[in-house]
Write a structure and sequence with these properties.
The complex is a heterodimer.
Chain A: H1 2-31, H2 38-55, H3 60-88, H4 93-115, E1 130-133, E2 136-138, H5 140-162, H6 164-174, H7 176-181, H8 186-199, H9 201-211, H10 218-233, H11 238-258, H12 264-278
Antiparallel strand pairs in A: 1-2
Chain B: H1 2-25, E1 27-33, H2 40-60, E2 67-73, H3 78-90, E3 96-99, H4 102-115, E4 118-121, E5 136-138, H5 143-157, E6 162-168, H6 171-183, E7 190-197, H7 205-213, E8 218-222, H8 225-237, E9 243-246, H9 253-256, E10 265-269, H10 278-291, H11 297-318, H12 325-335, E11 337-340, E12 343-346, E13 357-361, E14 368-372
Parallel strand pairs in B: 1-2, 1-3, 3-4, 4-5, 6-7, 6-8, 8-9, 9-10
Antiparallel strand pairs in B: 10-13, 11-12, 13-14
Helix pairs in contact in B: 2-10, 2-11, 3-4, 5-6, 7-8, 11-12
The chains are: A mainly alpha, B alpha/beta.
Chain lengths: 290, 375
């Protein structure tokens, strides 16, 4: 029963990892910007939801909507006012990374100053597990996480495949020049990628605020998982990032079956290392030849 | 005109000299606390107490000049702690440093010994802290005392014999594991499972599954800061209903206000907050008024650490001796006993105070369940 329990836990955690990783992968794949502040987007949306829902007692759909609006504005503002100016002057990968890293640090400290640096969580009956079978406990949040991840991923695929802006996003990841040829503005499409990628962290952030709880430094862990899943899934592949997020979550939990919890985080890096050595293009990434 | 200018220069020189003399009499000590990061809650708690102690010492004018504290942020990380200690010793030139957290305290102890600077710990409880040399003092009973108080209580008074330990993999967690391994068999109890977690781990649903699988009577948690709250919440959310127990790390407001922590047991040194002793009474009353929080053992420890410095520095000034680490150590040995919050305390040979312990219950009525005399 322990094994089944760990698999279920892993699927729940993996679904949340997948959602976060897909957002990062979408932004990175389309714009080639290493958006380190993606973790900060996660933290912002989680704390906005916490403050509205748990402190001000706002109705939960309104709290989620507000979190969505704030995080989209944050992503768009970063693209316009931080990455845009850097790209128009220096534009190197490293400069953008440092800029993004700086923003993440500032946001972490701001959150710590406003909300405190301690642990907070959103009290909810949805995070309380019930015993389905003897020794098998599942919380409603597990089902919500999986369903939300599937719905978001399918919706994203439809959006990217069937709408003009979605197709433009895919084109941007291939060639910004091609986007321009078709009369589109790559900057506007890039802004769209940031809005959409940032929006995708909201479900994971809301569920995490209920299940694991929050602290001001939570963004760092989110970034770690997002980067690992993006590489394991194949850079630019949203399907790959989703599958890799799921794989990392399940592997992290399955490691507990035989090993000490001390080693479960190492499993993430072991998988990452294995992919870098044995399959550098990831799950679904394309092999690039020079 | 010339004599007037000479008089002005002379007057200015005298003013500068006097000002210099006044600042030379002011006293400064250092403090290395986690002021940012996941454990900053502790830093806030400690600072509330140290600032209160400084204001009390300055109000009484017991010292020649004004006392102040140079704070440095360790983030509860040993590496940051060493940087902070070097700055306090070499730049601020302090002779007395307040320290917190087992890992940080161990890391700064070598600099303390080498530079003959007194380092005083009021928050870390790893038993190794008693072995860090004569310049490292502990105004808090260490984890071995805490486990030796809690384990017999759980086994003999509560009939809980099967323990599972969830511990952070650092010197504190490892020392608590060692103490449980050595003390439980003699009590007729067992440590069924010891699960180590990295200090930055945040997901504990899988750990909860392992804990349930071990079928414990009691789960002992040896972590700190935001992580211990996450552990408690996720254990409770994931079907762990057994008694939770811990060490004095639970004596913080974040745990007191966490609904899932209700009923958890933890040890601290014995302090009667309603005591008639004037030091305890003043601390309790003014700490609550100043911070709007109930006093905790941690706050009392850091208040005591500053008060201890005041007593030693005052004694050295009266004897006409400079306030150096060496003289502070000599004076502490000479005086022997000190009136601090919680009553009169003495130091063991290893520089650690000896104290009775108490078993507390989170949100319990009464909050203190049992007093355990010092062995």
């Amino acid at each position: 029963m322990l094994l089944i329990q760990l698999i279920i836990n892993g699927i729940q955690v993996g679904a949340l990892y997948g959602l976060t990783a897909v957002g990062f992968s979408l932004i990175f794949g389309a714009t080639k910007i290493f958006h380190f502040a993606h973790g900060a987007s996660f933290a912002i949306s989680a704390y906005v939801f916490y403050y509205l829902y748990a402190v001000l007692l706002v109705w939960w759909p309104i709290a989620i909507l507000a979190a969505c609006i704030v995080v989209v504005l944050f992503g768009v503002a970063l693209d316009r006012y931080v990455y845009g100016p850097i790209q128009s002057t220096d534009g190197s990968f490293f400069t953008i990374f440092v800029g993004s890293f700086g923003v993440a640090v500032v946001i972490q400290n701001l959150i710590g100053t406003v909300f405190g640096r301690g642990f907070i969580s959103v009290p909810s009956v949805l995070s309380r597990s019930v015993e389905l079978l003897p020794g098998l406990y599942v919380a409603p949040t597990a089902g919500i996480a999986v369903v939300t991840a599937v719905v978001c991923f399918v919706a994203l695929q439809l959006f990217l495949g069937r709408t003009n802006i979605g197709i433009a996003l895919r084109a941007l990841s291939e060639s910004p020049a091609l986007v321009r040829t078709f009369g589109l503005n790559p900057k506007a499409v890039s802004t769209c990628a940031f809005a959409l990628g940032s929006l995708l962290v909201v479900p994971a952030a809301v569920l995490t605020s209920m299940t694991s709880g929050l602290n001001a430094a939570i963004g760092g862990r989110v970034m770690l998982i997002s980067v690992a899943a993006t590489i394991v899934g194949g850079v630019g592949s949203l399907r790959g990032a989703a599958c890799a997020g799921l794989l990392l979550g399940v592997a992290e939990n399955l490691a507990l079956w035989r090993f000490d919890p001390q080693w479960s985080e190492a499993v993430t890096f072991l998988i990452l290392f294995a992919f870098i050595v044995l399959r550098p293009s990831g799950f679904f990434g394309r092999v690039v030849t020079s | 005109m010339w004599p007037l200018r000479k008089v002005a220069v002379l007057a200015f020189s005298m003013l500068v000299a006097l000002a210099g003399r006044a600042s030379a009499e002011d006293l400064r000590i250092g403090a290395i606390f986690p002021l940012s990061g996941a454990n900053a809650d502790y830093g806030d708690l400690y600072m509330g107490a140290t600032e209160l102690a400084v204001s009390h010492l300055n109000d009484t004018k017991a010292l020649g000049g004004k006392l102040s504290i140079a704070y440095e942020d360790s983030q509860a990380l040993p590496q940051q702690g060493v940087i902070a200690m070097n700055k306090l010793v070499n730049v601020e030139k302090v002779s007395y440093v307040l320290s917190a957290f087992t890992g940080v305290s161990k890391a700064i102890s070598t600099t303390a010994t080498r530079s003959r600077t007194v380092a005083v710990n009021g928050g870390g409880v790893g038993p190794d802290l008693a072995e860090l040399g004569e310049y490292f003092w502990n105004v808090i009973p260490l984890a071995d005392f805490e486990v030796r108080a809690m384990a017999p209580y759980l086994v003999q008074k509560r009939g809980l014999k099967r323990f599972v330990l969830v511990y952070v993999d650092d010197p504190l967690g490892q020392s608590i594991k060692r103490e449980l391994e050595s003390s439980l068999p003699s009590l007729g109890a067992t440590l069924a499972e010891a699960l180590s977690v990295p200090s930055n781990a945040q997901q504990f649903s899988g750990v909860a599954a392992r804990v349930r699988d071990a079928k414990p009577d009691v789960v002992y948690i040896a972590s700190f800061g935001a992580q211990q709250s996450q552990i408690i919440k996720q254990l409770r959310d994931n079907g762990v209903t057994q008694q939770l127990a811990s060490y004095s790390g639970f004596a913080i407001p974040a745990i007191a206000s966490l609904p899932e922590a209700k009923g958890a047991l933890f040890t601290t040194q014995r302090i009667d907050w309603n005591s008639d002793d004037p030091v305890t009474r003043r601390f309790t009353r003014e700490y609550q008024a100043r911070t709007r929080r109930a006093p905790t053992a941690y706050a009392a420890n850091y208040y005591n650490a500053v008060l201890l410095y005041g007593a030693l520095a005052s004694a050295l000034q009266k004897a006409g001796l400079p306030i150096t680490g060496e003289n502070l150590l000599t004076k502490r040995r000479e005086i022997g006993a000190f009136d601090l919050v919680g009553g009169r305390v003495t130091f063991e040979k290893d520089g650690t105070i000896r104290s009775a312990m108490q078993i507390n219950e989170v949100a319990g009525e009464p909050a203190v369940l049992e007093t355990v005399v010092a062995h």
